[in-house]
Structure formats: structure tokens, C-alpha cells
Amino acid sequence: MYFDDEDRLELQILAGGNIVEHAPVFSPDGRFMFVRCLTNVQVYATSTGELTRILDDATAPLISLELDLKQPELLIGCTSTGELVRWNWRAGVLKKTVALKLGSGDTTVLTCHLMNLYKGGDTACAFVTTKRKSGDQVNWFVVNTCTGEKIDVNCGLKLKVRTPLVDVGKGEFKYIVLAQGFYIYFVNYVTWKFCRYKSAHKQTVTCVRMSPCEKVAAIGDSNGKIFVWRDFEQKKTMTSTLFHWHSLEVTSLAFSPSGASIYSGGHETVLVKWSITTPENRTYLPRMSNVIRHIVVSNDNETVLVCTEDNAIQLITGSSCQIKSTVQHFTYETKNKTGLGKFPLGLRLNPRTNTLVLNGRSGHLQFYSAYTKSMLYNLRVVDTNFRSEEENHIIYNTRITRAAFNINWMATGEVYNDMESFAEVRLKFWHYNEKLQSYILNTEIDLPHEHGFKDIIFSNQFQVDNLRCATAGEDNVIKVWGLTDSENIYKRGSMWCCLAQTSYRNLPIGSLCFSQDGSLLAVGYGNILALYDARNPRLPLQTLSCPPGLDGVISKAQLRLAQNPLNGARKELTQQRQQLWALLKTLLNSNDEKLVNQAKDLIVGPPAKATLMNQPENGSKESVFRYIMKMPELGLHQKLQLLRRFGVECSVSHAHRNRLMEHLQQRALIPQATRLRLRKLDARLHRLHTRHRYKAKQRLSHLTRRRQNFEDLVPQDVMNLFSVLKIDESSKPRKEDAKNKSKLDESSKGTPKVKRIPAKAAPLQGLAQISQVQFGAGDQAHLVAVCTESRVLIWNLLTLRLQAGLKLSVRQLAFDPLTNLMAVITKNDELHVFQPNVPLPLYQRSNLPKTYGLAWLPRRQPKQSSINVDWQAQSTLLMLTHSQEIAYLAPPGQSPSDDAPAPISFAQSAATENLLKHATFGIHVTKQQQASTESLERSGPLIVGRGEHSAVNAFVNLSAHTMPAMSLICSEFVKSLVTPADSTLRHLSKSGEDAPLTNGGSVNGNGLLHGHSDDVLENEELAEEGEATGSTLDTRKTLLEQNEKLEDLLPEGELDQQTLDHRLKTITSLRTKLKL
After folding, report:
1. Which domain of life is it from (predicted)?
2. Full-model pTM
3. Do residues 604 and 762 lie in contact, with contact meaning Cβ atoms separated by under 8 Å?
């Protein structure tokens, strides 16, 4: 597909920067903290958590950030490319950039730590570790941060391949502690002597930390143990103390400034404070938001900073261990072992505040404002506790898989499925509370569907009356929910209940969508689009299916053979293709059964013979056979294929072969009686009590699953296994001796002949599965877009015909009701933007990152340009990428938050003109307004149509598929076009009242001035003008007197606060007393 190379839009990041990848740094007084986010340094106030400054002068990701010991206002950072950046963080000014001279070639800097060592410069020297490429040994250097030159050091320390964990002591005891795997190194950077140790039981070291005022080091390992090392210069005098509470690995350690306490954190989401002298005395801060990643303590011991893996920084008081503030950016979903998607909800838009909603912490929804680039809040939806990860176990938590939003309501679907027991499914409806400014749970339904949800959608985003909600489940059932009176005698109100449910041929549901007015419900069942009446969705009104071939699935076989032999093709394959092509030509004109069987043998054919390895001798074949058969990770089919590669042939005896074929024929397919029995049992489950229904349903589902697995296993694995063992009809019989053949013939006389199952090839025809359904809006409300595996089909509901089709394999779709634009992301990571009525692409882009979801964000101030010129004039397209970032396409330097708020307009323009006349600079404004009114009077206002007849607009804008019969609306429509006599008189009087605004002349509908009018109206207008001028003169005199009094009160210098307050009170009292 062709893409325009001259694309002026760039992919920019709106939110999602990782602020917890590296440990933050406190200022010397603890009032500010410095956070690294890729190439930026963000400065926050610790008291309020507010962002105060951003330092963005680095050209590559920062891997370290520290304050100089002698110059605390100097902030030094090091990038991964070996560039030192120095800022004066108080002034926000870049001081200097220095390139490290680490040798020739591409070198990646792994770590960089400042030392309490000054040699030939005003800043401290740094301990740097580098690596050229993966697999190489890690090198270390001592670098002068002023010049970037290496400093020669006489030390025999050699590091291994892994990225080291490094910490540097900057107090009285100048030591460097390093850890690689289970090796621990202590280096004295004054004498440059080092010693090496191994961790207890050779456990992997996960974090290291040096004490700021003692010769003490704390080391945590993967078993959750913390060892405090003392006197580690010599192995004879070295001692270690065990601190053990964590059950999983220790992720972070931190000493208090006095060295009397240690803070530790891990996967248990608990912050533990230890006493260095008595390990038994410890305090806890449980239920942190997520796994603790970094812990930093301020120099005054007043604030403890904790970074959690959900991209949050929590500031905790050091004395009472209470959370005082939180810095929360875009919330990250933590890694787990389940293999499930991180964002099953995708990217949603809350129509109430135009905020983005997506999955956040486990069991939470996060609401993010793209206008202010701030996290509003995390809403806890799941009531169960969060289960932390365990070693050698897969832990499942309840996940929010679907959600839908209305201006007053929110519906969420949560599923807990541990792949062993029956899935727990809950549907919750939340109502927005104005006082609390949050959502409150209104209704909770247990097990609305089986195994989970496919989709949840409201009938209208802004409608409150007659609101409906439709849910589709994995059980191929659609349920429609509505508001009814609550049955609770203790709390009256409204609640949600099921109004109707439906299904269609037990076909799987791909997607569902309501029309713009909520009257129709479109559901995609397999390859069929069904249309329901939203008020009574018992039976579909219409079912639409695409003709064969147009939905992306061909109904005929296509065979393409190269005319010329390909380079490297084997001769036997070329001959087989030529024979097949000749047979197919003759098959088109004849129905000979011999030719059909011959073509079938050529199509199915024997299994392809792979190239044999170096065949071992006959004596070593047995050892090869035993070794391969002992491999537990391989299946039987894989073992047999591997044996054939080594030239070891396997076969099955004739008697066992017949018994196996009989058994397979009897149980290859489920008999009809068994299917009917399973259906009857499923129907009887609804008669059981709720207490016994779940257990019976679980047993029945296990039985159905086992039968289905066996049915799927036969054509996939068993038939392939038979072809390897040469049991099927497509394989050639093995050559046997005449004696053995006669014995087999005699033994086979008594056994009946068994009909063999043929090896079936892949099917040539299938059904297209609908994945997305979307209605149009406004004048395109009669169009429905349907997405299959390889097509986008546009249906016209007025003609019930297929209007257009696009050859796109859509993975995600987003619709903008303001502009009728549809944005789709294909499986090849391509973006296409089009309208359903004219499916020609307005914008195309390739090489996009992998995305989880799309959403259109309306602009606060739309642009006055056509969508053909700027397709993002009304709304901005946002994408949730796989790197957990929200991205958008815009020209360089522009973001969705740059839109100015909508201007405020007042209806009474005459009153504002009178007020502006007496203002200080109001005369200049009134002159401009008079000039604009004079230009309007000369040309006359352009009036198109009749403003009173809103029925015409309502009739034209009415959706075509929801329009009632013409016999019902014809009489009312004609009556609305007739103008009564009273309205004409009111229109004439209104034109007379507006005469002073047009210099005494009244303007008719065509913009022409009337030359004469009634004398009575002129007298009334003159009287009104006299009263108005008298009142304006009195008002002007009063305002001038008060203005002179205020000017006398003005001092020559600056005004104090009391004088300003007095003036403000005087002005407000005048504005309330005078009635202009």
C-alpha cells in the first residue's frame, strides 16, 4: 500500500514516562527531589508533590544523577552514551557538558557514581562501568568529571559479564561495594585494595547499600535475606548479621542518615524498618500500592521516598511512617507470569469529563486528563485483596476486562479465572456522585455470563432517560439491562436488572453496537450481522451476511504454480507439481473417479522426507533411541520425527494396528446421543438451586471440555502420528519377507476388515469472523461498519445492501461521533483514517508501534478547518502503545493540552456597551464596535432560511432508519410551517426595539433599511432614548466623583495590602448599588 512520504506529523508522547526506573535524589535540605525520566530531570516539591521545574538538556537517557558534595547546588548526570551534564538546579541553568573519553568504539555506560575524591578539578571523580557489546566483560574506570579524562589506578579488580550493582560510600569510610551474581567485591578507593566474597548459599545478590557513617554494608539476596557486613577489609575479621523477614527477593535497601536503621522492601508490598543493633525490633508499613522498587531517605531523616512498580512515588514521614503525599504519573501495569494482556480494557473515553480511562493497578481503573497531563485518581473496582507474586507459582488476580461509560453511569465487568475452577464473573453498575466527585457502586450482579465478557456498551453516552446497557458474554448470549425501582426496603432508589436476553444459533459473538439514538442494536455473530430492536431484542429484525469472496474468505481453491522452475527446487517436487497441474486440467472437463483418486494422492501425498542427519551405526541406534525417548519435553510425534532424522524407523505390529484403528473409529467423533444428553443436562441446570448449580455446571463444563479436546486431538495430532508410523492409507506399506507375509495373511483371515480414516487436508473454505461493529452518526447513522479478518465492510441499512469494502485486516478501531471519522490499526501496524460514506483514506501511516487501544479526544477549542485539510481539527487521535505510553500524531511542538478554553460570550451586548463607555479604556473598545456595526449596516446581515421553524431542522437531521411513518408526522409538520398573526406583530415590534442599535433604521430579513415607519413607534423610541441618556449621565457623574476620590487616595509609592483591599471593597459596593 502506498504511503505519503511527506508526512508532517510526528509521533509524540503525551503520558507514560517511567519515573521509577532509577532511584530519585533529594536536595540537601530535603525540600526538593530530582526524578529521572528518560532524558529529562523533573524537580518536585516534597511537601506538596508538585512539579516545579524540568531540566531537559540531556541528549540520551540518563543512567545516573547525583549532587556534588562540595557544591550542593550542582547537579551532575551521566547518559548512556558517556556524556556528563551539569546543571545549577536552583536556577535551572545548564552549566556544562563533558564527553567521557573511554576509548574508541561504541561503548555503553552501565553505571556512574560520584566518589568523595577530588583530583585536578572542582567536581568529584566518578566510578564508571562500561561494556562494548552483550557477552563482553564489564570494564571499570575512574573518570575526572571536569575534563572527562581517565585517571590511572593501580588495582587488579576484574569484573565478569553481568551488569554490576554498585554503591559508593561518601562519608568517612571510603569504600565501593559491587555485586555480580553471587560475587561481592569491596574496594577501598583511597588505597585501591579490594577483597571478594561469595553470598550465603551462593544466592543471587539483588541489592547492595553502604552505610553513610560506618564501615557497614547491607546486602539483600533473592531468598529475602538481608546480611549486614562489618569489618570486611579482611576475611578473618569480617562478620555478618542476618535480617530475615521477606519471603521473596529483596528489591531495595536504604540506611538512615545516622546509620542506626535500615529500610527494606520487596514483592510483599510492605516497607520494613529495621534497627541495626536489634534485628528483632522492626516496624511495618503494609499495603503499599505495588512492589517496592527503590527506597531513598532524606538527609534530615524527615522524609522517606518509596518508588513502587506502578509508576508512583510515595513520600512517607520518617518518624510516624505515614504517607503524606504521592507523585503519580501514568500508572503502569506490573509484570506477571500469567501471560495475559496488560490492558484488556484498551483505551476508553469518559464522556462526562473527556478523561482517558484504562487499566491501572490490579483491580483499579485510572482516570487520566490529557488536557492537564495529570492523573486524576485511581478508582478501586475489585473488592478482593491483591495477591502478590510467589516463586514457582502463577498467581491470578481479578481483572477488569470490559467497561462502558455514560455521562452518569459506568458499567464494569471483572473476571477471576485461575484455569482450574469455574470462572467468577461480576457485572457492576456505578453511579456518579456529584458531592463526592466519584463513582459509587449501585448494582452488582454475580455470574451474568459464563467464562467472561465479550463486550459492554450503553445505548447512549449522554442520555439518562430510558437508558439501556447491553452485555455480551463468552457463552454466546446477549443480555439487555435497564433501570428499575430498587427492591431493597431499607434503601429506596433505582437499580439495574435484566430486561431481555437473546442468542442466535449459538454462534460466537464478535462485537455489538447501538445506533446513535439507541433504537437499534447490531451484533456480529460469526459472519452474520444481526439487527435487533433495542426495546425488545428477542428476535432479530434483519440478518445480513456478505456474499462469498467479499468478506475475505474465498469459496474456491486457487492454485498458482511457477511457469519456470525455481532455483534450488528439487526435481521430484517439480515433477509432482507438473503432474498435478496436468490432472487438474483434465478434471475440469471430466468426472473420472480414477483421476480424482490420483489427484487426491498427489495433493495429500506421503509425508515429506527431511534430510537425514549423519546416520549412526546399528550398534549406536539403540542408545540414540533410548536417549530421545527419555526427553520429557517432547511429545510422541516429535520424538518419532526426531528418530526419523537419525535414520531410526519405528513401526507398529499388524495386530495392534487393527485394534488401534477400531478403537479410533468408535471414539473419533461424539455420537449424536451423547450430544443430546449434554444438551439436556445443560437445560436442567437452571432448575437446580443456586448453591448446587455452580458445582454441577463446573462438572458439566469439564466433561464437555474433555470431549472437545479429544475431538480436536484426533485430526491434529493422532493423524500426524499415524502418518509417521505408516498406518494411514497415504503411506506405503513396508516391504516384508514372503514368510512373514504368509503368516500375516493367515492370521488376518479371522480378523474383520476395518475401514481406514483418510488423512484430511486443510479446509479450503471457512467463515469470516466479525471482530468489530460500529454505527455511523448524524447524517451517516444508517451506515454500519463491520470488520472481519481481512476486510472492512460498509452496510447501508436503508437499502440493506453492501455499500463499500476495504481490504484491511483490522486489529483495533476507534470512532469519532463529531466528525464520523473511523481510525483503524491493522495487523501490520498501519493507521488508516476514513469516513464510512466515502471509504477513501484521509490519512495513512505505517511503521507505528504496537498498540493496546485507540481513542478520539475532542478538542477544547476546535479548529475552523475542514477535515479534508486537517483530519484532527475537531478531535485528536490517541494511542496506547505496548511500551505503556499514550502517544499522538501532531506537528512538532504541539500537544492536545495546547488548546485554549472556549471563549465566554454574553447575550446582552447592549448592557456591556454601556458599561464599556464609562471604563478607563472603554472608549477605544466602543469605537471598534461602532465601526464593526457600521460595516454591518452598509452590507446588511445575511439571513438564510427561517430561524423560527426548528421543525425543518429536526426533520432534516432525523435519522433515516428511526423516522416514523409520514402519515403520523405530516400534519404536525405542516402546522409548524404556518406563522400565526401574533408572531408577525411580535417580530415587527422587536425590529422597532432594535432600531437604536442600527442608527434609527430598522432592518428587514434581506438586510435592507426601511425608509419610513409609524409615527407612534418613533415617539416611543425618542422617549426611551431620552430616559436612557438621562440615566447614563447620572451614572457617569457618580462614577467620575468616585474616581476622583480614589485618585486622591493613591500614594506616590507602592500600595500596601490594606489600601488595595479598601479600593476593591469600594468598587464592588459601587457595582452593586448602581443599576446600569
Report:
1. Eukaryota
2. 0.65
3. no
Would you state the cell numbers that stand for residue 513, as one nine-digit string?
Answer: 453496537
Residue 560, SS3? coil
The answer to whether 785 and 822 have CB atoms below 8 angstroms apart is yes
- In sequence order, which residues have a C-beta less than 8 Å from that of residue 478 and are 6 or more positions away? 470, 471, 472, 501, 502, 503, 509, 512, 521, 523, 537
Please measure the distance between the N-terminal and C-terminal CA atoms of the chain and give it in whole angstroms: 67
Task: Residue count of the chain, please give it.
Answer: 1076
Distances (CA, A) of 330 to 19, 34, 41, 367, 797: 9, 18, 17, 9, 42
Helix-strand-coil split of the chain, %, nearest 5: 25, 30, 45
C-alpha–C-alpha distance, residues 449 and 167, integer Å: 54
Mean pLDDT by 10 residues, the chain (1076 residues): 64 86 91 90 86 87 91 91 91 89 83 88 88 86 89 88 91 90 91 90 92 91 92 86 91 92 92 90 88 92 90 86 81 78 91 92 90 87 84 86 95 92 94 92 94 94 92 95 87 90 92 94 93 92 83 57 56 72 71 69 51 56 78 72 74 70 60 72 77 80 78 61 52 42 42 41 60 94 92 93 91 94 93 92 91 93 86 93 89 65 36 40 44 41 38 58 62 64 46 39 37 45 51 61 59 52 61 45
Cell of 182: 553471587
Candidates 794, 706, 287, 301; CA nearest to 529 is: 794
Euclidean distance between CA atoms 1024 and 459, whole angstroms: 54
- Do β-strands 843-845 and 32-37 pair in parallel, antiparallel, or remain unpaired? unpaired
Cα(722)–Cα(122) distance, rounded to whole angstroms? 79
pLDDT reported for residue 17: 79
Q: Which residue spans within 231-352 are E strands per DSSP? A: 239-244, 250-255, 261-266, 271-275, 282-285, 292-297, 303-308, 312-317, 323-328, 348-350
What are 428's strand-pairing partners? 412, 444
| Sign of the torsion angle spanned by Cα atoms 637, 638, 643, 645 | positive
370 in Cβ contact with 356 (< 8 Å)? yes
**Coil, strand or helix: which one is 253?**
strand
Cβ(28)–Cβ(44) under 8 Å?
no
Between CA 1017 and CA 1024 the distance in angstroms is 11
Per-residue model confidence as pLDDT tens digits over 517-537: 999 999 999 889 999 999 889
Instruction: Please give the Cα distance from 135 to 115 (Å, whole number).
Output: 28
Three-state DSSP class for residue 904: coil
Q: 789: exposed, middle or buried (C-beta count within 10 Å: 0-12, 13-18, 19+)?
A: middle
CA-CA distances (angstroms) from residue 540 to 90, 474, 511, 770?
Answer: 69, 20, 15, 17
Task: Single out the residue of 214, 218, 178 nearest to residue 194, CA to CA.
Answer: 178
Three cell numbers, residue 985: 406583530
Cα(998)–Cα(497) distance, integer angstroms: 60
CB-based contacts of 613, cutoff 8 Å, min separation 6: 645, 646, 647
Retrieve residue 805's grid coordinates: 469494502
List residues bridging with 349 in a β-sheet.
356
- Residue 856's Cβ-count burial label (10 Å; 0-12, 13-18, 19+) is buried
Q: Are 427 and 445 in contact (CB under 8 A)?
A: yes
Classified as helix, coil or strand, 719 is helix
d(CA 326, CA 270) in angstroms, rounded, equals 16
502, 534 contact by CB (below 8 A): no
CB-hemisphere CA count at 13 Å for 995? 22
Q: Output the CA–CA distances (angstroms, integers) from residue 482 to 409, 426, 467, 499, 838, in the order listed.
A: 12, 17, 7, 6, 36
